[in-house]
Specification:
The protein has about 150 residues and is mostly helical. It has one domain: FAD/NAD(P)-binding domain. Helices cover about 55% and strands about 5% of the residues. The strands form 2 sheets. A two-stranded antiparallel sheet has the order 1-4. The protein has a two-stranded antiparallel ribbon with strand order 2-3. About 15% of the residues are buried.
Length: about 150
Amino acid sequence: MVSERFTHPLTMRLAQDFVKNRMVLIGDAAHTIHPLAGQGVNLGLLDAAALAQTLTASTSSQDHNELSTYDPKKLKAFARYRKSEAIEMMGAMEAIKQTFSINQSAFTVLRGIGMSVLDNFKPAKKRLIEQALGLKLELPNLAQKNPQ
């Protein structure tokens, strides 16, 4: 049986607010990106780790008589951190998508030369690999090899 093909455009989306009142958005609820390099799930896992760290810090710094883990200042800092990370990744994925969507012969040759230079320039290649793996200086404790 053969049926008509359907397509659904892949779009990037970014929530205006990651934190509002007592609600926190993480993962695909906060941001969606093109699945070009499989980075969406990594962003979501880092969101979860950063939120866990934020809530743990809020709980440990609260008065023992108060059971709430809601600390607006810490949650706003969490939102700024994670939103900036999402925007950075979205920009990188869009740049890659645009670079590889142009199929003009001159651009294809230039792209190939650029990829070859990048492949042979070890410091830049290492930095890009680390970036893709999420190995940054400011990782949540749960995402580090040796959590503090």
